[in-house]
Amino acid sequence: MTPTPISLDPVTLAVLKGRLEQIADEMDATLFRAAFNPTIAEAHDACHGIYDATTGATLIQGKSGLPIFVGVMAFGVKAVIDKFTGDNAPREGDVFIFNDPYLGGTHLSDLRLIRPCFHGGTLFCWLASVGHWHDVGGAVPGNYNPAATEYFQEGVLIPPVRLYSAGRLNQDIVDIILAASRLPVSAFGDLNAHLSALDLGTARVAALLAESGPDLVAAAFAELTARAATMMRAEITGLPDGRWEEEDFLDNDGRNDVPLRIACAVTIAGNRLTLDFTGSADACAGPVNISRATTIASVYVALKHLFPEVAANSGVLDPVEIILPPNSLLDAQRPKPTGGYTETILRIIDVLFCAFARIRPGHAIGNAYGTINALSIAGNRADGARWVMFSFFGGGHGGNPEGDGLSHGNPPIATAIIPPVEIMEAAYPIRFTQWALRPGSGGAGTHRGGMGAIYEIELRDAAAELFVFAERARFAPRGVLGGGQGAMNVVAYEQEDGWHTPALGSKVVGVKLTRGQRIRLESPGGGGWGDPAGRDPAAAERDARMGYLG
Amino acid sequence: MSRLVVGVDVGGTYTDLFLFDEATGKARVGKVPSTRGREADGFAAGISGLAPLPAIAAIVHGTTVGTNALLERKGARAGLITTAGFRDVLEMRRRDRRQTWGLTGNFIPPIDRDMRLEVAERTLADGSILATVDPEEVAEAARQLLAMGAEALAIVFIHAYANPANERAALAAARAVWPNPHVAISSDILPEIREFERTSTAALNAVLQPVVGGYLSTLDARIRAEGFGGEFLIVQSNGGVMSVETAASLPVRTALSGPAAGVIAAAHIATSAGFPDVITGDVGGTSFDVSLIAGGTPALAAQTTLDFGLVVRTPMIEILSIGAGGGSIAWVDKAGILQVGPESAGSIPGPACYGAGGTRPTVTDANVLLGRIDAARPIGGLARLDVAAASAAIARDVGAPLGLDPIAAAEAILRVANARMAGALRLVSIERGFDPKNFSLMPFGGGGALHAAALIREVGLARALIPRYPGVTSALGCVIADMRHDRVRTLNLPLAATDPVGLRAAMDEAGAALSPLLDRAGVAFTGRRVVHALDMNYVGQTHTVSVPVPAGEPTPEALLAAFEAVYVGAYGRLMPGVPVRLLNLKTAVIGTRPKIDLLSLAPSADATIAAATRPTRRIWFGDWVETPVFDRLTLPVGARIDGPAILEQPDTTIVVEPGYQAMTDRFGNIILARA
Q1: In terms of domains, do B372 and B292 share one?
Q2: Which of helix, strand or coil describes residue A112?
């Protein structure tokens, strides 16, 4: 797509923006409904968008997809653009697939399917469909392996390859991908669901181009990106100039029980924002490293939460400079493991929320619970078939100017919802013995933090292995403007001699459970907002009457 | 001997009425102000204005009293008894949040935490009972809730859809101590897997029982006191009617009562007119409600979310609502992009042109400034509209930031509003695999016909069909709706293991369970039928497609063929070899009620175009055009009016844009299409 001098009236722009967003939304809906694994179908850990033909920059993003993918997909598209050039350039009907986190960000579980859209024989834009698959091999079912030291232990890495060549399916690639998974039927179902979404998006883009013409649509893309940048600059200009330093810590990397520092110096000068992460910990042995692409995407998510009115495209980052120290855990190089990327990006968001709470106190929001709380329980059924129960568990959101934080919310990086207890119990040999709010977990404040939850699960099979990948067992979610901390994460599991807590806080690797033994998660609450002494007495009385205070 | 049936749709501002004489085929319409807080007065007065109550055989009511109570948090104080360990299911939701970006927004559950009590009991996913329930523990919990002021009680146990035995034992124990009939168990309301959706539906039902039950018994007492001796029926969200007795025990089924009636009317009008494929577009004050009717049958949805965390799951007419109505406010965002809605000026203060304190420009203000709405003869009871106020608001909030004069700014507001409405029309058609060029738009509500030509153009629809009385469509739907009761039961069976005899027995049992609801209603039906559909998927998927059960033996082969036909239509590809599962059996029993012959509404035979002609008006169609105006209701059958033209009637204005033609069909509908 080349820049076109066509002029675009604001009304046509608004109309085209709506049409383009609808295409991405429809692709989201198609994948959610057709996918097999509940992490996509129920938890919506997936995303679709439209990307620039030559740079891969995000042009349009669906409203229902996973926020963290918003920023990161551009890197995935760019990886395909860079690899497939010259004689090997993309053709109409090609579909590319890969999960290389060093090229495309996030972790191996996220499969990216990328398809070029042509108009009149010329590449016009890219469509991408990304989703979190149930299992991609590696040492741990479900792929959250707290003990990984190289990506080889996390799953099978697929470099960008052609799944379809000019409309013809490359069955060899499908066979390799399915052979790598413990759950090949789920993988096959998800693959087909991604393809249905891309088929639909391609047809919709073609219809729009036939109707409005490529020049007008290209002009809309350019204008929307420019406006997001303009708006972000206006937001930054409205902030006071200065420099603010903030830090927070990850509990550990899953190997060594040493806290890992995430530091950020926020500098505002006129309409420029600089985020300097110098001082953050070096790359670590365990899987909480993240690639440069992931770090940039997490900055994008934080800024979108702090400035929700700014449009969702690459223009948001135009006025932002991001400085990453070399060899840090925020710029991971292969083969450093990245499977727990969610924890690190959540901490980046927490750090930025705390910094901006000082920069503009009127919009301060307490930290949310700050961990993905990934739990998997895996075993073999009587007939030998593998079963893997995998889910993310929720926690509290921070108190904010509007009121108390939401209890049992989803993480800021996702719009994922949790599968129902009844669906999980019908699918796997487990039983929930408790599914409750966690009283006392919300940070105190004029506006209290939301509560985390208590989940207790009993094994109803002869034996299984337990894995938990979580954080915030050592460092609590912070309050703002004098608000208190949320409660920390507490993980416990039963063995023959009684209850145990993991040596690494909230990370569990391959603990054997036998019939009747339980695992218990008590997830963090959100940080409070404002001095607890300022809380409305009626709200305090209600908290006590509802049993919210523990 | 006449047999009078009256449909009554009580809205926030107006109560619409439609009276039909089944013996003579004659119909009359009425519109009176709603009397909020004293609903029985307006209700009885409105009906009496059309015919004496003792002469009426049936009254059918579409109501929003339940929905309003939930949205305004004015439900009754209710209690919940649930499985030990699960009392917070209602408050924890599906671990979601209010909006994607921003991380603000809280949730207050419909039943407070201190009113949710646990009892020791447990059923497993396969229906086996791990722990039986202790009736005395339930009775004690019920007594405690009563002491805390509960007026209604919901009992929801985990996996009760798979085996309701514990819930039924608890129901018996609770009934023994509960002083009123407002006690229900989740397996009676919704025997379907997914504990939050089932709990939310049961909790909202409990919260509504005293409210809706009280409202209906007050209405019933009032009309009976004035001599009414016929049937009193309530429209449900699925578009069927139910008895007052059923409505009082299952009030959650009235969530979309009024809008559903409108869609039922649309299906009947469109099918009669020979266009059974329509998309309805109801333009109200705050919202644009869209529904798809294919082959004369409205699409059904499994659930709706009334507000964040307030989920009602029960089969209902699928209605997509977006915040783009006449009162929707136009504004320019920080990126300089013109937006319309979702914020609305409502009816108070209303659009700037109402002169009632509203200062922000709305879609209605744009229509007024461009002359499309006659400021001297507005619908809805105002004496006249303030064009200058509309112009000033548009100039300030839209014209100045975009560098447009007020007229250009008003045009821009309509374009963006039309684009948003078009997006909703595409969502229910293209996204569901229906090609809009085969569909007609049926605009109703006060504002729909103002936008019809633009929507035909934007979406590529075949035509618009504007019913004779677009402002009372829901009331008409009340009169013609069939009685319908739905039941969803979770099966969770592999297709390969499906026993046709067992499945047939389950279908027969579901039909037999529902039929008494028809028998007890005391309504004479012209026919009855039972329809079954299955929610099916590939094993491993959690979402399903709805598959009509094919005629003949429901063998695995026949069901697989039916599933694949639906699946390939939805997703374009199949996965041969992957096992298939039956998740839910969905059964509906339908008692058919007499249909109106819509010819009774047709214009009189001596109508002429000349007699219907009114003075011209200046209207903006890219320039000011002296535009012919006609009285829509007195146009004769077969009249053809070329645009630009305006057709006026008391409850709406139809804009025939240049390049379009309006034609009156034999029923008095207007068919609007490209000339």
Answers
A1: yes
A2: strand
| Residue finishing a domain among A206, A229, A252 | A229
In DSSP terms, B645 is beta-bridged to B656
Per residue in A443-495, pLDDT tens? 999 999 999 999 999 999 999 999 999 999 999 999 999 999 999 999 999 99
CB B199 within 8 A of CB B186: yes
Interface of B with A in 206-245 (CB under 8 A): none
Q: State whether B114 and A234 contact (CB < 8 Å).
A: no
What is the pTM (predicted TM-score) of this model? 0.90
Domain boundary among A179, A203, A229: A229
Helix (H, G, I), strand (E, B) or coil at B219: helix
Question: Comparing C-alpha atoms, which of A192, A167, A188, A55 is closest to residue A115?
Answer: A167
C-alpha A355/C-alpha A296 separation (Å) is 17
Residue A513 lies in a domain: yes
Q: What's the CA gap between B338 and B347, in Å, rounded? A: 23
| A296 part of a folded domain | no
SS3 A430: strand
CB A146 within 8 A of CB A510: no
Residue B584 belongs to domain with CATH number: 3.30.1490
Chain B positions in Cβ-Cβ contact with residue A394 (cut-off 8 Å): 92, 95
Which domain range does residue A88 map to?
10-229
Residue B257 lies in a domain: yes
- Within 10 Å of residue B320's Cβ, how many Cβ atoms? 17
**Contact between A410 and B97 using a beta-carbon 8 Å cutoff:** yes
Model confidence over B556-610: pLDDT tens digits? Answer: 999 999 999 999 988 888 998 899 999 999 999 999 988 888 888 889 899 999 9
Q: Clarify whether residues B442 and B585 are in a common domain.
A: no
Q: Spell out the alpha helix ranges (H) of B429-468.
A: 452-459
Q: Show residues of chain B in contact with A402, CB under 8 Å.
A: 104-106
Shared domain check, B646 and B545 = no
Counted residue by residue, chain B has a size of 675
Write down which residue in B239, B272, B305 finishes a domain. B272
Domain hosting B217: range is 1-272
CA triple B444-B449-B453, angle to 5 deg: 130
| Secondary structure of residue A464 in the 3-state scheme | strand
Rounded to 5 degrees, φ, ψ at B472 are -125, 30
pLDDT at B306: 87
Q: In angstroms, rounded to a whole number, what is the distance separating the alpha carbons of residues A403 and A158? A: 45
Of A304, A309, A456, the CB nearest to B333: A309
Residues B452 and B500 in one domain: no
